[in-house]
Amino acid sequence: MASIATHQAAPPSPSPGAAPGAPDPGLVALGRAREHTLELVAHCSEDELTRVHSPIMSPLVWDLAHIAAYEDLWLAHRHAGLELLRPELASMYDAFETPRAVRGDIEALGPVDARAYMDAVRARVNETIAHVGSGDGHVCEMVVRHELQHTETMRQTLALAGLLPPGEPNIEPIEPIESVGDEAWVEVPAGPFAMGAGPEGFAYDNERPRHTVRVPAFQIARRPVTNAEWARAGGGPVNGDPNAPVCHVSWHEASAFANAAGARLPSEAEWEKSASMGVLDGVGQVWEWTSSTFAGYPGFVAYPYREYSEVFFDKEYRVLRGGSWATSPRVKTVTFRNWDLPQRSQIFAGLRLARDVS
């Protein structure tokens, strides 16, 4: 784990916005995220937690221990200056030093020990933050969102294994295209807009800096492509409500579908401009592929460690926007950028069409 950070976080200081005697808001958020994580896998057996369900996904128990190791590194070690609780586990639960392909082969912690590790890390983080505070809150928020993002990744594994909890996936139907009629497409006029997150509040490094982007006029579909539309176009068999957004679509499949429909995928600038204008329906049910490759914005600065974003720039990764049914509302902001390889379909991803204005 120690290899993932390039510099120390800011020294601890009193947490902003907390009333005297009130619990630190960061600790409250950490507690809620942990409840969600443990509830997600409460129905899984030890074998289901330790088994490799897919060669491109981690065993679920690896994710549990990784969540604890990340929290220990950033909140106990880098934020509060404590020694790592289990330094011998640092490399094993570093996402880069132990890639997914080998996580099922290592002598990792079992479910009981992984949960004990999570509890032990959380106990000293609670004690430490209660004493020194969470500073400007950035590192604590990063740790909260890291855990929330891992619960979505774990849901991908659970979906591949047929182990999702009852009621999931929770993808709701949207208005059929036939009833939308002339309002199926929205024309977005040419012009500049401010893209990315502003300087205030929490955002990941790849969302900044906010910068001006000039986008030609274009049209974008008001709602995502549905299961029925996907099936009618020969996109393959699908499950779920015919009027729900199609899910588990790779970028290659999404791009081919768009081309066959006489359209294309929107760029991420087009997507964000449309979302900021509030003209998109059905956002947040499935991730939406864009045509854009993942790269840094002009003036990008890696923070607080380059391995979160920078090592993925300018390669094959394509950007997804909007969030999915499995994404925490805390994570899926208008400016949040997800990315994955174009052949991957395990993510909860679909598509929305765009086209040029002639």
Describe this entry's structure for a reader.
The chain is of the alpha+beta class. The chain folds into 2 domains: 2-161, Four Helix Bundle (Hemerythrin (Met), subunit A) (Up-down Bundle), CATH 1.20.120; 177-356, paralog of FGE (formylglycine-generating enzyme). Helices cover 33% and strands 10% of the residues. It is built from 9 helices and 9 strands. It has helices at 25-40, 46-50, 60-79, 111-132, 138-161, 177-180, 227-232, 251-260, 268-277, and strands spanning 185-188, 191-195, 211-215, 218-221, 287-293, 318-321, 338-340, 349-350, 354-356. The strands form 3 sheets. The chain has a 4-stranded mixed sheet. It has a 3-stranded antiparallel sheet with strand order 1-4-9, with helices on one face. Helix 3 runs parallel beside helix 4 (111-132) and helix 3 (60-79) packs antiparallel against helix 5. The radius of gyration is 21 Å and the shape is globular. The relative contact order is 0.14. The model is unreliable at 1-14 (pLDDT under 50).
